[in-house]
Every structure is written in structure tokens, then in C-alpha cells.
From TrEMBL:
This is DUF389 domain-containing protein. Keywords: Membrane, Transmembrane, Transmembrane helix. It comes from Natronoglomus mannanivorans. The keyword Transmembrane applies. The chain crosses the membrane at residues 111-130, 136-160, 172-195, 215-233, 240-263, 269-296, 308-331.
Length: 453
């Protein structure tokens, strides 16, 4: 429920009243003593605000003097039941004024924003190092990145250069703070003896999925940005959607910081490219939703005067973002193609009758040099093993297949997990569980580095 408060001149009072009553809106007219005008107070369903604005604008009634939309709990008017039935279940995006106001409400002061970004990064770092999904999820809940991620698109469609500049700057420096905080905490853990310095980062499940951009990670970013854009244009809260955007960004920023602390430039580059790619995709998805809904064609609200950001400054920031987008786009495209070739090569190798007792569980690729565009990559394949099997031979076969497909010499590591069948009388091949005592870890016979001969 919303309540529209609008001041109109005395000469337009009857015209405004008739325009609203034609659409079954009930209202009261309150005379104003200190001005030549009246105050219209109109209780409306949330989805009717846009129609009410249209009704007044069609009669050329100026709304810039004083118009306020407030929330209401309930309304009892002669037409309230009719209006509720008319607008129940309908989706009517927020007006341009409401959209900009809601986007501004998402913004935080820079002090609290920086503090929450640092704290969320510290929590995510701890969660990644101890491989705890619950802790990583906790870091997403408190991260305030959703505000800047949404306001860039709103500023673009409403022509507010101040909002664009603030949004882009807060996204960049917020994630930069997150990476720095993560690197400091991870370095403290490593050099303080709390975590083994020889820890194999790609072997951590939550870290291994964030080594580099891939098609699935971009789909997650695009879906999160699209959901955020749709949620922003509705009357509902965006807190839950903000968790999804944080899920796509904060753990990846923490992974970059951990890679820096472990002095692994190849991993740092891979995770940083994934972070930038996801950030770009989220912002583009939000902007796309707003453009599709036609906000760029609506009347743009006044920004209230000059802002602290000149068009030259905003243009420079946009140019930097464009360059980063092009670089990340090329790197992501090449990485995605390589990931597909690796997956197909692994599938071809595992289908060899010699590997009948092995089943692929997961495939992870990572950069093996300083360039995200060229150079060999390292591939880690986790497989389940039943009965007699030869995972070392599988590693060699996969490396050979990858070299034939990509013309690159790739180091392949196979991580076998041994399983045993249940002794139950009618157990089938799909009804077995892992024997913990016989599972192999990366500290004994796990990873087998192999390069093709």
C-alpha cells in the first residue's frame, strides 16, 4: 500500500481530481493556507503509483513542486476493494523517481561500507582456508556490495553522473579493500604457523572452483545481476538478492587475497580475472534489465544541481572499465574454450575400456604461468575408483588428449578417491559408500603430476 501526496495549484484542483477519480482512485483535497494550492492525498495499491502519475501527467499537471510517496499499512475507501482486485498479482515496475530513490537508499556512507567489506572478506578468507561453506555463506550476508552494484545501472538510465561515478568507485575500491584485507589475514595465518605453508590451494574445494573464469561462473553472475535488476524495480526488499551478488564476488575476492599471501601469482591472476569478469557481467545484467523495462525512455528526474563528478571524470572511469571489460572478455572467452576442450578430452580418455573402474567427479583448470591468455595450464581431475584401476595412466591419457586438441603441453593431476561396494546381498553399483579409511588424500598418493611424452 502506498499513499501519494501531491501539491497542485488551485486552478488545477478539479482537473487533477477528475483524472484520478476516472481511474477509481479515492482521494481527499486539503487546502493549504500558506500557498495558492491544495494537497491531494491518494491511497493506492503499490502497483498503481505509475498509473496515478500517468493520469496527472496526461492532464499536464506539474508534479515537481511537491510530490511524496509514502508507505501505508491499509486503506478503507469506497474503491479500495476494487483497486486491490485490479492490481493484485500484477507486475508494474517502479516509476523513475521511485527507482532512483530506492537506489539511493541502498547506498552506505563510505566508512561503514569499507568496514563491512573488510569484515566480510576476513570471514570469507577464514571460511576458504578451513573449507567451511557455512562460514563463507556468512561472509556474503554482511557484504554491502549490492548497493554500488545496482546504482551504476540506475545512474546510467537516469543520466545521473554522480550516481555512476560513486557506484563505480565504490565497487572498485571496496573489492580492492577486500583483497587487501584477505591477503593480510591469510599471510598472518600462513607465516604465523596457523596454516601449513605448503597448503595446496587448488585442492581446497571452495578455492578450487574460483581459479579462473568459466561459462558457469559467468552464468551465475548474469543470473545474479538480472535478479537484482528485477528486484530493484519492484516494491520488495533487495537484501536476499544482495546475498546472491555477494556470493558471486566476495569469496572470489578473498581467494585472490589468499593467492597473494601464498605468493602464487598464477592463482592470483586467475582469481582476479574471474572477479573482474563477474563484476562486469553483474553490472551489465542490471543495466540490461533497466533498459529492457524502458527506464532510459522515461522522464529523468532532476538530480538537484551539479554533482561532485564531472563528465570527464566519469568518462575516464568508464574508459578504464571498458578496457578491463575487453581484456577480461578475451581472457574469459579463451579460458571457456579451453575448459570445454579439457572436459571433452577427459571424457574421451575416461571412456577408454582400460578405465572402466574410474569415474570423473570434478575437473579444475588453473593458469600455469603469468598470462591469462597463453601458456600451459594445470588440470586437476578428481575421480572415484572402484576395484583395480590405474589413475596414473588416466592422467597420461588425458594429457595426451588435451595436447592433441589444444596443441598445449598441460600438466594433469589425477586425485583418486577409492570406493567399495556394499556387502548387502542385492546392492547395485550405484549403492556404495566411500570407505573413509581407504580414501587417498593429496598428502600421500593423491595427486599425480604427469606431462605427455
Amino acid at each position: 500500500m502506498r499513499v501519494l501526496h501531491a501539491v497542485v495549484s488551485s486552478e488545477n484542483r478539479d482537473t487533477a481530481r477528475e483524472a484520478l477519480e476516472e481511474r477509481d482512485y479515492s482521494l481527499i483535497v486539503i487546502p493549504l493556507d500558506d500557498t495558492d494550492g491544495v494537497l491531494l492525498e491518494v491511497p493506492l495499491p503499490s502497483n498503481a503509483i505509475g498509473d496515478a502519475f500517468d493520469a496527472l501527467e496526461e492532464e499536464e499537471i506539474e508534479l515537481e513542486e511537491y510530490t511524496v510517496v509514502t508507505s501505508g499499512e491499509a486503506a478503507m475507501t469506497p474503491t479500495s476493494e476494487t483497486l486491490e482486485q485490479r492490481y493484485a498479482g500484477s507486475y508494474d515496475p517502479l516509476t523513475g523517481v521511485e527507482l532512483r530513490s530506492k537506489a539511493r537508499d541502498l547506498s552506505r556512507d563510505r566508512g561503514s561500507y569499507a568496514a563491512l567489506m573488510i569484515l566480510s572478506a576476513l570471514i570469507a578468507t577464514a571460511g576458504l582456508l578451513i573449507n567451511s561453506p557455512a562460514i563463507v555463506v556468512g561472509s556474503m550476508v554482511i557484504a554491502p556490495i549490492v548497493g554500488p552494484a545496482l546504482t551504476a545501472g540506475v545512474g546510467t538510465v537516469t543520466g545521473d553522473r554522480g550516481m555512476i561515478g560513486d557506484s563505480l568507485w565504490m565497487q572498485l575500491y571496496g573489492l580492492g579493500l577486500a583483497i587487501a584485507a584477505s591477503a593480510l589475514l591469510a599471510a598472518g595465518f600462513r607465516f604465523g604457523g596457523f596454516v601449513a605453508p605448503t597448503l595446496d590451494l587448488p585442492a581446497l574445494d571452495l578455492f578450487g572452483v574460483r581459479l579462473s573464469p568459466n561459462a558457469l561462473s559467468l552464468v551465475v553472475g548474469a543470473a545474479a545481476g538480472t535478479a537484482a535488476g528485477i528486484g530493484l524495480t519492484t516494491k520488495g526488499p533487495t537484501s536476499i538478492i544482495g546475498v546472491m551478488i555477494s556470493a558471486a564476488l566476495i569469496p572470489t575476492a578473498a581467494a585472490s587475497g589468499i593467492a597473494v599471501a601464498w605468493l602464487e601469482p598464477n592463482l592470483a591472476i586467475g582469481t582476479a580475472v574471474l572477479l573482474v569478469a563477474t563484476l562486469v557481467v553483474v553490472n551489465l545484467a542490471v543495466l540490461t534489465v533497466l533498459v529492457v523495462l524502458g527506464y532510459h525512455r522515461r522522464e529523468r528526474p532532476s538530480t538537484g544541481g551539479e554533482t561532485d563528478w564531472s563528465w570527464a571524470t566519469v568518462g575516464a572511469i568508464l574508459a578504464v572499465c571498458l578496457v578491463l571489460t575487453l581484456i577480461v572478455g578475451v581472457a574469459t572467452a579463451q579460458q571457456t574454450i579451453t575448459d570445454r576442450e579439457v572436459a571433452q578430452a577427459t571424457d574421451d580418455a575416461i571412456n577408454d575400456p582400460a578405465h572402466d573402474n574410474l569415474t570423473v567427479i570434478s575437473i579444475q583448470t588453473q593458469y600455469a604461468d603469468m598470462s591469462p591468455f597463453t601458456g600451459p595450464r594445470e588440470v586437476t581431475v578428481t575421480v572415484s575408483e572402484t576395484g583395480d584401476a590405474a589413475p596414473d595412466e588416466l592422467a597420461t591419457d588425458i594429457a595426451t588428449e588435451i595436447e592433441e586438441r589444444t596443441d598445449e603441453s598441460v600438466a594433469v593431476r589425477v586425485h583418486p578417491q577409492e570406493y567399495e561396494y556394499s556387502s548387502a546381498g542385492d546392492a547395485t553399483a550405484s549403492e556404495f559408500e566411500a570407505a573413509g579409511s581407504s580414501s587417498r588424500s593429496s598428502l600421500d598418493t593423491g595427486f599425480v603430476p604427469v606431462t605427455p611424452r
